[in-house]
Amino acid sequence: MDERLNTVPCGFVSLTEELKIAEVNTTLLILLGYSEQTKLKGQPINLILSGPSRIFFNIYFTPLATLNNRVDEMFLTLQTTTGENLPVLLNAARHEINGGMRYECIVFPIRRQLEYEQQVNKAENAAVKAKYKLELLQASITHKQQIAAKLEEQIEQYDQDLLQKKLELEAIRVELAQLKRSSQTPGDRGNER
Amino acid sequence: MMDMVDVYKRNHVNVSGHGERPIIFAPGFGCNQNMWRLIAPAFEDQYKVVLFDYVGTGLSDHQAYDPIRYGDLLGYAEDLLQICEAIDARDAILVGHSVGATIAMLAANRDPQRFAHLIMIGPSPCYVNDPPDYYGGFTKEDLEGLIELLDKNFAGWANYLSGAVMQNPDRPSLSRELEESFCSIDPEIARRFAVATFFADTRQELQKVRVPALIMQCQGDIIAPVEVGEYVHDQLPGSIYQLMQATGHCPHLSHPEETISIIQSYLDSIPTIDSTE
């Protein structure tokens, strides 16, 4: 391997078609805690992937790398020799090298970026929750407003009914007064007789 | 009742080829029919090749996504049966990769008359270990971690895509992006599909298979390890087991020639009974 590629500030790993490690640069060895190339050469890439990343990688890498000839920004978690997780972004390109197909990959650690993203995610989740609460409150306000409107309508209806009844009562009073008057009138006449 | 559903549109069904007998390809987890690009054309001379996308993937009708229906593999199997009904499939050959093989099996068990053969590439009836008798290859924690990874890899994808489509429908690079992102999926849908897939236990279904089955097993496949392929062969009555030279989980992409030749020689060896019916 080119000496400069060995020490570039990102991990480099070249995979065979069988997804085995053909070459790996010193930067990646150091990131993963391996002392020598020989420990990784010829090993399946699965060896340096965390459990979940192994599944994800095996589902998506071959389809993307075969049909598009490249993979962009695949988020994976590598596993160091001490069992620690190393979050990385992986880019890969498929090339023919010395008559064989190779997947040339660079891996870029994103520990800090990930922390930031997690904070953003947390904030986003909090915002979503707050928004949900707000929506609930608004819904409850709307509901109460509807009840109030209905009550107002009812009050108005009562007022109208009351007015109606008053008018009716008034009418009855008038009638009653007339009746009284008319029943007194014949009596008066009788007295006159 | 289902006459109302346009299955072709819903599942982006594509039919090609010159043969009478349908060969239907069910893709694996989360990816669309592009996965069959390297092998499907090889069957067009002899068969009616049927490709489709699961609802929520590829160019399916995303409006038709129903979280309850697709919260279970049976929902996907019902869709597959409806596709078979729509194309009036008889004596069909059903090829499924990965969870597509499970979905194909569920469909075949519900309507065995329709299918002449079931071809399962890298099948697994249960991904989670069930000690002491069953080795699926994964712990529950692995699979929960996978769901987190799906979130991280596809977060923002749905927003990005809908935004891009709405703002700039004529953007020429968009169709290329769509084409290249055949594995991209809304994280919510991915999560439900992943739970339905990786926490499914369809071991009981294996013994119910009444359709002749071929099991194609890769070497060094960590998603569907050799032990699982052998288990499927052991439990599925009368199945034929073929250990491939291919390594990994996607032989139809990494080793298309071998995949084609195994399927073709299996199909060539079976008597042709369909043409008389």
UniProtKB/TrEMBL annotation, chain A:
<dbReference type="InterPro" id="IPR000014">
    <property type="entry name" value="PAS"/>
</dbReference>
<feature type="coiled-coil region">
    <location>
        <begin position="120"/>
        <end position="182"/>
    </location>
</feature>
<keyword id="KW-0175">Coiled coil</keyword>
<protein>
    <submittedName>
        <fullName>Serine/threonine protein phosphatase</fullName>
    </submittedName>
</protein>
<dbReference type="InterPro" id="IPR035965">
    <property type="entry name" value="PAS-like_dom_sf"/>
</dbReference>
